[in-house]
Amino acid sequence: MQYALFMQKQIAFLAQGNNAKFLGPVLHWALERHEVAVPPLGLDAGDEPLVRGVLERADLTWVEWVQDLAVLAASLPRRGRLVLRLHSFEAYTGLPALVDWSRVDALVVVAPHVAEIMKLRIPDLAERVRVAVVPNGVDLKRFALRKSKARTGRIAFVGALRHTKNLPMVLQCFAAAARRDQGLTLHLAGQYEGGELEQTELAVYLPHLIHALGLRERVVFHGQVADIPAFLEDKDALLSCSMRESFGYNIAEAMARGVAPVVHHFPGAEELFPGERIFHTVDEAAELLLAPPPPPHALRAFVAERHSLAHQRAALEALIGELLGP
Q1: How many alpha carbons fall within 13 Å on the CB side of residue 307?
Q2: SS3 279
Q3: Cα separation, 323 vs 326, whole angstroms
Q4: Is the domain of 13 the same as that of 133?
Q5: Which of 139, 158, 165, 236 is the most exposed place for a label (fewest CB within 10 A)?
Q6: Quick one: which H or E segment has residue 316?
Q7: What CA–CA distance (Å, rounded) separates 39 from 85?
Q8: What is the DSSP string of 244-276?
Q9: Starting from the edge strand earliest in sequence, which strands make up the sheet with 106-109, in order?
């Protein structure tokens, strides 16, 4: 375990598998205020002795993702508080219904619409457990306003290449705009993810569709991109066609850089992003891609006002401060 001693209260973080990619800002906030324990990642329900030991020592245990590890943690005895954070995909599975919510002090979601999706399986969720919204936050220092002002015709897609990102619709929307503007190109940053079947289906289908649409010279796969701020520097717009998002970091980060978002209306999109940048049809997406973009500073201001790290930290302070007490 890794320890950083600042105060007497200890917060332990457990993340199932190696999926701690959204935990960084929460962990950094906690390290500034508390003693923090971060047990080895890669945990699953088979690590019961380790999980049991954490729960017996910590003043508050934060479990990332509501999967079988969260089900296990809620079933074990503990000395402190228990917080589970649900992101998005878990709400579409049966695992949250297996949690004994009477033994959980708070369910954290990043946006209200995620809790509403949970209620499709657990209608009385709000009666069983406290539901707290702790929004995600964008690092505005890392995602500074881009220097490039000239229109390039380059459209970005940033995200995993998997079915939930709705890549066929991405290509259809781009094709509709590309037919009207021969200077447009589409640039995809991301790699194939998911199971073997899902990855293979997309790896076969996407090149097939690109060829059928006559776009082989206008669609570029960049693979996994380490420096997303640099990738966005010369992009006019970011196209997102996801079927579900809890937040959409890629969208908010692009806006922080001054890149115009073009966002399919996934459940909850209207709570997170400007309504005028949300589309329902391929034709609407094409119009947004072809229209003059909003002022970059206005896009950044929207993120600063609604999705900054300061908002996330204030929500953490309120929730954890109340659960741990003085």
Answers
A1: 26
A2: strand
A3: 9
A4: yes
A5: 139
A6: helix 309-324
A7: 17
A8: --SS-HHHHHHHHTTPEEEEE--TTHHHHS-GG
A9: 2-4, 35-38, 10-15, 60-64, 81-85, 106-109, 131-133
Cα-based distances in Å from 137 to 44, 253, 256, 300, 303: 27, 9, 11, 13, 9
Provide DSSP, 128-152: HS-EEE----B-TTTSPPPS--S--
Quick count: other Cβ atoms within 10 Å of Cβ 1?
11
CATH number at residue 194: 3.40.50.2000
Torsional sign, CA 261, 263, 267, 271:
positive
In tens, the pLDDT along 191-242 reads 999 999 999 999 999 999 999 999 999 999 999 999 999 999 999 999 999 9
Residue 129 tokens, joined? 């457990």
Give 119's contacts (C-beta < 8 A, 6+ positions apart): 125, 126
State whether 164 and 295 are in the same domain: yes
Domain shared by 160 and 246, yes or no: yes
Whether the Cβ atoms of residue 166 and residue 211 lie closer than 8 Å to each other: no
Q: Concatenate the DSSP letters of all residues of 51-72 into one string.
A: HHHHHHH-SEEEEESSSHHHHH
**pLDDT tens digits for 87-125?**
999 999 999 999 999 999 999 999 999 999 999 999 999
Cα distance between residue 178 and residue 218, in whole Å: 9
Q: Quick one: tokens of 246? A: 């809890």
Q: What range defines the domain where residue 205 resides?
A: 154-306
pTM reported for the whole predicted model: 0.89
CA-to-CA distance for 255 and 251, rounded, in angstroms?
A: 6
The answer on 294 and 315 residing in a single domain is no
Provide the 3-class DSSP secondary structure of residue 206: helix
